[in-house]
């Protein structure tokens, strides 16, 4: 272990105190301050922890922070075992099972927690996975790759490009399916990005995340991962989809279409919902139950059409009452190529916004309209406001999710510089992002 790992996360006074006491993460320590005495295991600090507190895990299992003052004394009472992430033995793979690649990009699902100290590290070698989720040995032969170790809010279009290329490499090696482990926060955006950049897929690409980490009893990490690997091995379709809990119970995993899925809850295990589209399938007791007949069939002989480039000069602008339209002028000045508006209701913005939109369109910026209602589709011929916007050159984007429309326009300007071609592509259903009718049930 290097110094950073030994004193993981500590800085300032707290770091100085533990250095002075010559203790390390995992040691049993006693902290004495005036008449107070606390004993426990020194555990790592989060990177955002302050400089003044040392964190110990008490015998009871609870963690407490103790403020370091000039008269605080730290001493080691026992040499604890250090955080261990021992390499599990590599297991024999069953050559008769489908070959599945697992690409890890980070997030809760891709972390392994040392239960004693709370240290977290990415852990997705095939043998790690088999040891954490032994059921996987009976489902597939795994080829695991750690591509990034990122919280998904740090993922950018450049990472989508890398992911699309990594998937393509595995497909060229002849896998039967690909699973991508991803943080849930922006998994919907990545799913849309891969839907556009991996066209004519021969095998399924399944994104999977988890809402609760593996150290919590309510964790969904193992069930989601098993569901995703079962899906990659067995579904009849070759589409990009997101595999997560269907409800709060562990009984089924639902597969959402990549361009029609959204994270709709901050913490529930069934946070992801298909919007304006049916889900593709359900995984129950390792069996696949199809929920639609509309899909591209798996076909190992089909040649993947890889289009991995994105252009980041596209903005998503949410309208709200009284907002300042100067934000649109700013994007135009910064030479953005496209703006997706998240308008009200059927697709409106206040008339005080028109001038900024006119200016954007005159500067050849593509302006598309989606709705902040989420469910339903924009209808810009119903009210005068909508017709005014169409006359200004705004493109109505049917039932496309605002996030999907933004990703799509980034992808479009990764393919072409031609504004007319971009507008045509934006209106065309390229990868299932536009449903032909509004579903009635929501
Ligand atoms: N916010 C982080 C992410 O989206 C961690 C939570 C999670 O994995 O869902 O990556």
In short:
The protein has 442 residues and is α/β, with parallel strands linked by helices. 25% of the residues lie in helices and 24% in strands.
Helix content: 10-25%
In CATH, what is the class of the largest domain?
Alpha Beta
Mean pLDDT over the full residue set: 90
Evaluate the radius of gyration.
25 Å
Compute the number of structural domains: 3
Strand content: 15-25%
Topology-level CATH name of the largest domain: Rossmann fold
Ligand list:
glutamic acid
**Low-confidence segments, ≥5 residues, pLDDT <50?**
none
State the shape.
Answer: globular
List the main descriptive attributes of the protein structure presented here.
single chain; 442 residues; alpha/beta; SH3 type barrels; Rossmann fold; 3 domains; eight-stranded mixed β-sheet; five-stranded antiparallel β-sheet; 23 strands; globular; binds glutamic acid
Task: Please give a structural write-up.
By secondary structure, this protein is α/β, with parallel strands linked by helices. It has 3 domains: 3-78, SH3 type barrels; 99-306, L-asparaginase, N-terminal domain (Rossmann fold); 314-427, Rossmann fold, CATH 3.40.50.40. 25% of the residues lie in helices and 24% in strands. The protein has helices at residues 3-6, 12-20, 126-132, 157-172, 187-197, 221-234, 326-333, 354-362, 384-392, 402-415, 419-427, and strands at residues 28-33, 36-42, 53-57, 63-67, 72-78, 99-104, 111-113, 120-122, 141-146, 177-181, 198-199, 205-208, 240-245, 252-257, 261-263, 272-274, 281-284, 287-290, 305-306, 314-318, 338-343, 366-371, 395-396. α4 (157-172) crosses α5, α5 packs parallel to α10 (402-415) and α7 packs parallel to α8 (354-362). It has 11 helices and 23 strands. The strands form 6 sheets. The protein has an 8-stranded mixed sheet with strand order 9-6-10-12-13-14-17-18, with helices on both faces. Strands 4-3-2-1-5 form a 5-stranded antiparallel sheet. A 4-stranded parallel sheet has the order 20-21-22-23, sandwiched between helices. The longest helix is centred in the middle third of the chain and has 16 residues, at 157-172. The protein starts with a helix and ends in a 15-residue tail after the last helix. Bound molecules: glutamic acid. Glutamic acid binds next to loops. Glutamic acid (GLU) binds at residues 106-108, 151-153, 183-185, 209.
């Amino acid at each position: 272990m290097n110094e950073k790992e030994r004193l993981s996360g500590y800085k300032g006074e707290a770091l100085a105190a533990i250095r002075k006491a010559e203790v390390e993460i995992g040691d049993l320590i006693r902290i004495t301050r005036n008449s107070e005495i606390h004993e426990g295991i020194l555990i790592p600090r989060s990177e955002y922890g302050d400089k003044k507190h040392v964190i110990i895990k008490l015998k009871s299992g609870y963690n407490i922070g103790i403020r370091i003052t000039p008269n605080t004394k730290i001493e080691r009472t026992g040499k604890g075992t250090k955080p261990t992430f021992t390499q599990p033995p590599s297991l024999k793979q069953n050559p008769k099972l489908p070959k599945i690649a697992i690409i890890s990009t980070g997030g809760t699902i891709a972390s392994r927690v040392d239960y004693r100290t709370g240290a977290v590290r990415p852990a997705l070698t095939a043998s790690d996975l088999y040891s954490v989720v032994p059921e996987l040995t009976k489902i597939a032969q795994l080829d695991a790759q750690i591509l990034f170790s990122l919280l998904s809010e740090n993922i950018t279009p450049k990472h989508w490009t890398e992911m699309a290329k990594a998937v393509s490499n595995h497909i060229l090696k002849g896998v039967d399916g690909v699973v991508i482990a991803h943080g849930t926060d922006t998994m919907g955006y990545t799913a849309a990005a891969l839907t556009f950049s991996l066209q004519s897929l021969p095998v399924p690409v399944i994104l999977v995340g988890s809402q609760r980490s593996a150290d919590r009893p309510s964790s969904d990490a193992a069930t989601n991962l098993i569901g995703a690997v079962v899906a990659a091995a067995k579904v009849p379709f070759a589409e990009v989809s997101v595999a997560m809990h269907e409800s709060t119970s562990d009984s089924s995993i639902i597969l959402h279409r990549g361009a029609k899925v959204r994270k709709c809850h901050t913490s529930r295990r069934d946070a992801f919902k298909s919007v304006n589209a049916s889900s593709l399938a359900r995984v129950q007791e390792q069996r696949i139950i199809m929920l639609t007949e509309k899909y591209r069939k798996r076909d190992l002989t089909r040649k993947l059409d890889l289009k991995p480039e994105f252009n980041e000069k596209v903005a998503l602008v949410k309208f709200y009452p009284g907002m300042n339209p100067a934000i649109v002028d700013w994007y135009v000045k910064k030479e953005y190529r496209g703006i997706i508006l998240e308008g009200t209701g059927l697709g409106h913005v206040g008339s005080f916004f028109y001038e900024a939109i006119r200016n954007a369109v005159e500067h050849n910026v593509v302006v598309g309209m989606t709705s902040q209602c989420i469910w339903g589709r924009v209808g810009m011929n119903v009210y005068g406001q909508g017709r005014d916007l169409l006359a200004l050159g705004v493109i109505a984007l049917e039932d496309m999710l605002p996030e999907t429309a933004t990703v799509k326009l980034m992808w479009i300007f990764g393919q072409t510089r031609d504004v007319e071609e971009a507008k045509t592509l934006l209106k065309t259903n390229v990868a299932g992002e536009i449903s032909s009718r509004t579903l009635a049930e929501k």
